[in-house]
Specification:
Blueprint (H helix, E strand, L loop, with lengths): L52 H9 L11 E2 L2 E2 L1 H11 L8 H4 L4 E2 L10 E4 L8 E7 L2 E4 L8 E4 L3 H6 E6 L2
Antiparallel strand pairs: 1-2, 3-8, 4-5, 4-8, 5-6, 6-7
Helix pairs in contact: 1-2
Length: 172
């Protein structure tokens, strides 16, 4: 399935690790029980079948437009690592809650081998991994940036993101 996505690259700094905030629980009407501080896993989807990269990216794409919330990890608001934690959790795949921890999960892969569902990491606010997104295919990834305040799609090859890209990990 091909999806034509048009994106506008905003050259403002965006990074969910900017404040160094600790993820906090938020009131929510999310479709899973328990705390949203990383101690509970979102209710899985997919009927117990193994998740594919397209399943992961499809779940992430369905969250476009959800507002940015520092420390957020549910559909009421996400920060970048909260989005990754939630999306992978919906598919029964446990994921650490912070960017730094997510950067150590799975195996490193070169940019030329990126596939849907891979995690892409950027250095936006400090040295090392401070921002994360989920590849959806081609040159596009979905993430929760603080600059425009909603989950959205961007191009990895854009001037802003290419200059800040530091690595990718494959979890599936």
């Amino acid at each position: 399935m091909r999806v034509l996505l048009m994106v506008v690259v905003v050259l403002a700094a965006s990074g969910c690790a900017a404040s160094g905030a600790t993820p906090q629980p938020f009131p929510t009407s999310a479709p899973f029980p328990g705390s949203h501080d990383g101690s509970a896993t979102p209710e899985p989807v997919g009927g117990g079948l193994p998740a594919t990269g397209y399943d992961i990216s499809g779940t992430a794409l369905a969250l476009r437009g959800v507002p940015y919330r520092n420390g957020g990890a549910d559909p009421d608001g996400f920060d970048c690592s909260g989005l990754v934690w939630y999306v992978f959790g919906r598919h029964g795949l446990p994921m650490p809650r912070t960017v730094e921890e997510q950067y150590r999960v799975g195996g490193a892969i070169p940019p030329s081998r990126l596939e849907a569902g891979d995690l892409v990491f950027f250095s936006t606010t400090s040295r090392g991994a401070s921002h994360v997104g989920i590849m959806i295919g081609g040159d596009a990834f979905v993430h929760a940036p603080s600059s425009d305040g909603v989950v959205r799609v961007e191009r990895l090859g854009s001037t802003y993101w290419a200059a800040r890209f530091i690595g990718a990990r494959r979890v599936l």
